[in-house]
Amino acid sequence: MEKILYAALNTIGRFDGEKIQKSDSGYIEKYRDNLIKIQKKNEWKYGGQSAAFQGRYHDDGPVEFYAAVNAVCPDGEEDCFYTVIAGEVSGVIAKNYETGRENHIYHSNQYKFYAAQSCPEAGLIVLSAAENESTKSVAVYNRNTNDLKFLTSGDALDDNPFWSGADGAIYYDSRGLGLNAKMEIVSVGPASIFKTDIDGTRCDEVLTETGFDLLCPKTDSDGNLYYIRRPYKNSVKKGGGGLFLDVILLPFRLVANIFRGLLYLSKLGKRNKERKNVNTFGDNPSVQKELSDFDLYVYGERIDAGKEEKANAKGDNKTAGFAPTSYELFRVKRGGEKELLRRGVLSYDIDPSGALYYSNGRYCLKAEDGGDRVIFKDKLILNVKVL
Predict the structure, then answer these.
(1) What's the predicted TM-score (pTM) here?
(2) Across-strand partners of 147?
(3) Which site in 72, 115, 269, 341 is 20 to 30 Å from 98, CA atoms measured?
(4) How far is CA 376 from CA 239, 242, 280, 319, 366, in A?
């Protein structure tokens, strides 16, 4: 019976073999609650007739901040951990499936955490982390000593690290950056696959292809290398900074006209003193919005979800997702033989037996010779991990 863990922007999902269990990030909820308390505490200074008379009146409006669950990872039978960003802080958070209880593994207002993988044998967590607003690096967190060590550096986006049990190396994808004097991104090179040792003393390029991004490398127990390939586009907007930095750094980002990115809104107007949560898929939780209303940015590239899903649904495809068919999953065997496994893959994982599971955005499927088998369906399935 398959059990799958996955992320959906700000929600953690778990398929237990029969049903889907979803839970929100307590870290994000607490951050929001703290902002609301601060706003309410200072409300008297700028609200009411007295403030208006003295020229100090202004309405803060809703509490707004960016938030995202970037990665989820199994952490034992009943636990997982996830990386999260909420406003100006970020963390690696442990969570129990049944109770929903959360504990901080690592919390920082200096670093931002993105992709992650557990190395339980060594007591380590491999991470991609940002020390500034323009670059990402591969880092290792030691759960026994509480030390965070950066293994890579430089003007690059080093992302999606994977510790390989086959050779003990850490594989990751890396995109070189062109930065201006203000440390704004002005160009992004194609992603290639690299590997480093656990100490960061040696770094080698493993695979590169002209005209393509090679992303999300993983290995199976036999040492075969898997990765997602897509056409390379240097889509940096002139001027750098702003929205593009959010897009290029976050692994997945949702943008909509009616809902600007991953904003959490909590209204504190005079008519409604109660907290109001806003559904990620629209500004009214009772009104379901289709994913076609949104642009999804995947690893820094914009996907027109509605257009892609319509194109994929042509013919007799009953499990169409919104992953472009140009997102191809490859395997390179240890002997060097390269094989195209599937098209339209946003995320994937390999279990200890070598079975392949992947998401096309809408469906989580198991790759089988006689036809891929649907494991479960959801509105948004990202960052799948086999339990």
Answers:
(1) 0.84
(2) 142
(3) 115
(4) 42, 36, 21, 10, 10
- 361 near 321, Cβ under 8 Å? yes
86's enclosing H/E stretch is strand 79-86
* 312 closest CA partner among 292, 341, 340: 292
Residue identified by tokens 């907007």 is 237
Q: Which structure tokens are listed for 52? A: 């208006």
d(CA 219, CA 165) in angstroms, rounded, equals 8
How many Cβ atoms from other residues are within 10 Å of residue 336's Cβ?
Answer: 6
Phi/psi of residue 43, each to 5°?
-60, -35
Q: Distance between CA atoms of 283 and 379, rounded to whole angstroms? A: 17
Asked whether the beta carbons of 105 and 141 are under 8 A apart, the reply is yes
d(C-alpha 73, C-alpha 361), whole Å = 18
Residues 6+ apart with CB under 8 A from 361: 296, 305, 309, 321, 322, 323, 346, 380, 381, 382
- Per-residue pLDDT tens for 170-222? 999 999 988 788 777 788 899 999 999 988 888 999 999 999 999 999 999 99
Please write the tens of the pLDDT for every residue from 273-320.
Answer: 333 333 333 233 322 344 444 567 788 788 888 889 999 998 888 899
Cβ-based neighbour number of residue 360 at 10 Å: 27
Tally the residues of the chain.
Answer: 387
